[in-house]
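Input sequence (167 aa), recorded before submission:
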Amino acid sequence: MGRIISVIGGENAPPEAVRLAEEVGRELARRGAIVVCGGGSGVMEGVCRGARQEGGHTIGILPGHNAQESPPNPWVEFPIYTGLGYARNSIVVLSGEVVIAIDGAYGTLSEIAYALVYSIPIVGLDTWDFSYHGHNSESIIRAHSPKEAVELALQLAEKRSHRSHLL
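Predicted structure, C-alpha coordinate format:
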Protein backbone atom coordinates (compact mmCIF):
# COMPACT_ATOMS: atom_id res chain seq x y z
CA MET A 1 0.00 0.00 0.00
CA GLY A 2 1.21 3.51 -0.81
CA ARG A 3 1.74 6.34 1.58
CA ILE A 4 -1.39 8.27 2.58
CA ILE A 5 -0.95 12.02 2.27
CA SER A 6 -3.54 14.52 3.52
CA VAL A 7 -4.10 17.48 1.22
CA ILE A 8 -5.93 20.46 2.68
CA GLY A 9 -7.03 23.75 1.19
CA GLY A 10 -9.82 26.14 0.45
CA GLU A 11 -13.25 25.11 -0.75
CA ASN A 12 -13.63 28.42 -2.62
CA ALA A 13 -10.03 28.50 -3.80
CA PRO A 14 -8.91 30.71 -6.68
CA PRO A 15 -8.17 28.97 -10.01
CA GLU A 16 -4.39 29.10 -9.45
CA ALA A 17 -4.70 27.20 -6.15
CA VAL A 18 -6.93 24.58 -7.81
CA ARG A 19 -4.33 24.21 -10.58
CA LEU A 20 -1.56 23.71 -7.99
CA ALA A 21 -3.71 21.13 -6.19
CA GLU A 22 -4.33 19.24 -9.42
CA GLU A 23 -0.59 19.09 -10.08
CA VAL A 24 0.00 17.88 -6.51
CA GLY A 25 -2.63 15.15 -7.03
CA ARG A 26 -1.02 14.02 -10.28
CA GLU A 27 2.43 13.88 -8.71
CA LEU A 28 1.19 12.00 -5.64
CA ALA A 29 -0.49 9.42 -7.88
CA ARG A 30 2.66 9.03 -10.01
CA ARG A 31 4.58 8.32 -6.82
CA GLY A 32 2.03 5.74 -5.61
CA ALA A 33 0.63 7.84 -2.77
CA ILE A 34 -3.03 7.86 -1.77
CA VAL A 35 -4.77 11.24 -1.36
CA VAL A 36 -7.04 11.93 1.59
CA CYS A 37 -8.88 15.26 1.75
CA GLY A 38 -12.17 16.81 2.80
CA GLY A 39 -13.86 15.58 -0.38
CA GLY A 40 -15.41 18.90 -1.40
CA SER A 41 -14.74 21.52 -4.06
CA GLY A 42 -11.82 23.87 -4.69
CA VAL A 43 -8.42 22.51 -3.65
CA MET A 44 -10.03 19.21 -2.64
CA GLU A 45 -11.58 18.71 -6.07
CA GLY A 46 -8.35 19.75 -7.80
CA VAL A 47 -6.17 17.29 -5.91
CA CYS A 48 -8.67 14.45 -6.42
CA ARG A 49 -9.01 15.20 -10.14
CA GLY A 50 -5.24 15.21 -10.63
CA ALA A 51 -4.77 11.98 -8.70
CA ARG A 52 -7.58 10.10 -10.45
CA GLN A 53 -6.45 11.26 -13.91
CA GLU A 54 -3.11 9.58 -13.16
CA GLY A 55 -4.80 6.41 -11.88
CA GLY A 56 -4.30 7.24 -8.20
CA HIS A 57 -6.68 6.68 -5.30
CA THR A 58 -8.64 9.31 -3.38
CA ILE A 59 -10.47 9.32 -0.06
CA GLY A 60 -12.89 12.10 0.86
CA ILE A 61 -13.72 12.68 4.54
CA LEU A 62 -17.05 14.49 4.23
CA PRO A 63 -18.84 16.64 6.83
CA GLY A 64 -22.40 15.33 6.37
CA HIS A 65 -24.24 12.08 7.00
CA ASN A 66 -24.77 11.08 3.35
CA ALA A 67 -24.26 12.06 -0.29
CA GLN A 68 -27.41 14.20 -0.34
CA GLU A 69 -26.19 16.25 2.61
CA SER A 70 -22.50 16.31 1.53
CA PRO A 71 -22.06 15.47 -2.12
CA PRO A 72 -18.45 14.48 -2.77
CA ASN A 73 -16.64 15.95 -5.72
CA PRO A 74 -16.79 13.65 -8.77
CA TRP A 75 -13.17 12.57 -8.30
CA VAL A 76 -13.55 11.12 -4.78
CA GLU A 77 -13.13 7.37 -5.11
CA PHE A 78 -13.89 6.46 -1.49
CA PRO A 79 -16.29 8.87 0.29
CA ILE A 80 -16.50 8.64 4.06
CA TYR A 81 -19.48 10.42 5.64
CA THR A 82 -18.85 11.54 9.20
CA GLY A 83 -21.81 13.71 10.24
CA LEU A 84 -19.23 15.83 12.09
CA GLY A 85 -19.21 19.10 10.14
CA TYR A 86 -15.91 20.95 10.55
CA ALA A 87 -14.89 18.56 13.33
CA ARG A 88 -14.10 16.12 10.52
CA ASN A 89 -10.99 18.25 9.88
CA SER A 90 -9.17 16.34 12.61
CA ILE A 91 -9.91 13.07 10.78
CA VAL A 92 -8.61 14.48 7.48
CA VAL A 93 -5.33 15.43 9.17
CA LEU A 94 -4.91 12.32 11.30
CA SER A 95 -5.56 10.01 8.33
CA GLY A 96 -2.39 11.09 6.53
CA GLU A 97 1.27 10.62 7.37
CA VAL A 98 2.00 14.19 6.25
CA VAL A 99 -0.17 17.19 5.36
CA ILE A 100 0.21 19.30 2.24
CA ALA A 101 -1.57 22.64 2.69
CA ILE A 102 -2.50 24.62 -0.43
CA ASP A 103 -4.12 28.05 -0.17
CA GLY A 104 -6.94 27.88 2.37
CA ALA A 105 -9.37 29.72 4.59
CA TYR A 106 -10.23 29.19 8.26
CA GLY A 107 -11.08 25.50 7.82
CA THR A 108 -7.57 24.98 6.46
CA LEU A 109 -6.14 26.93 9.36
CA SER A 110 -7.94 24.61 11.79
CA GLU A 111 -6.44 21.61 9.96
CA ILE A 112 -2.98 23.17 10.21
CA ALA A 113 -3.57 23.57 13.95
CA TYR A 114 -4.54 19.90 14.29
CA ALA A 115 -1.38 18.88 12.44
CA LEU A 116 0.72 21.04 14.76
CA VAL A 117 -1.02 19.68 17.88
CA TYR A 118 -0.44 16.07 16.77
CA SER A 119 3.11 16.66 15.41
CA ILE A 120 2.18 15.74 11.86
CA PRO A 121 4.59 17.35 9.38
CA ILE A 122 3.12 20.09 7.18
CA VAL A 123 4.30 21.14 3.75
CA GLY A 124 2.89 24.48 2.65
CA LEU A 125 2.31 25.55 -0.94
CA ASP A 126 1.08 29.15 -1.02
CA THR A 127 -0.80 28.76 2.27
CA TRP A 128 -1.08 30.36 5.69
CA ASP A 129 1.92 32.10 7.16
CA PHE A 130 1.95 33.12 10.78
CA SER A 131 4.16 33.85 13.71
CA TYR A 132 3.19 34.15 17.30
CA HIS A 133 5.48 34.51 20.30
CA GLY A 134 6.46 31.13 21.66
CA HIS A 135 5.55 29.27 18.46
CA ASN A 136 7.85 28.33 15.62
CA SER A 137 6.69 29.99 12.41
CA GLU A 138 8.95 27.53 10.57
CA SER A 139 6.60 24.66 11.50
CA ILE A 140 5.20 24.74 7.98
CA ILE A 141 7.90 23.62 5.55
CA ARG A 142 7.56 25.80 2.47
CA ALA A 143 7.51 24.39 -1.05
CA HIS A 144 7.69 26.49 -4.20
CA SER A 145 6.14 24.02 -6.65
CA PRO A 146 3.76 21.06 -6.60
CA LYS A 147 6.59 18.65 -7.40
CA GLU A 148 8.71 20.01 -4.53
CA ALA A 149 5.71 19.80 -2.16
CA VAL A 150 5.21 16.12 -2.98
CA GLU A 151 8.91 15.33 -2.74
CA LEU A 152 9.16 16.99 0.67
CA ALA A 153 5.97 15.29 1.89
CA LEU A 154 7.18 11.83 0.86
CA GLN A 155 10.59 12.43 2.46
CA LEU A 156 8.90 13.52 5.69
CA ALA A 157 6.58 10.50 5.61
CA GLU A 158 9.58 8.20 5.17
CA LYS A 159 11.41 9.83 8.09
CA ARG A 160 8.31 9.60 10.24
CA SER A 161 7.81 5.95 9.33
CA HIS A 162 11.46 5.15 10.04
CA ARG A 163 11.27 6.87 13.44
CA SER A 164 8.14 4.93 14.46
CA HIS A 165 9.86 1.64 13.54
CA LEU A 166 12.72 2.53 15.89
CA LEU A 167 10.41 3.08 18.88
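Checked by second reader. The mean pLDDT is 94.
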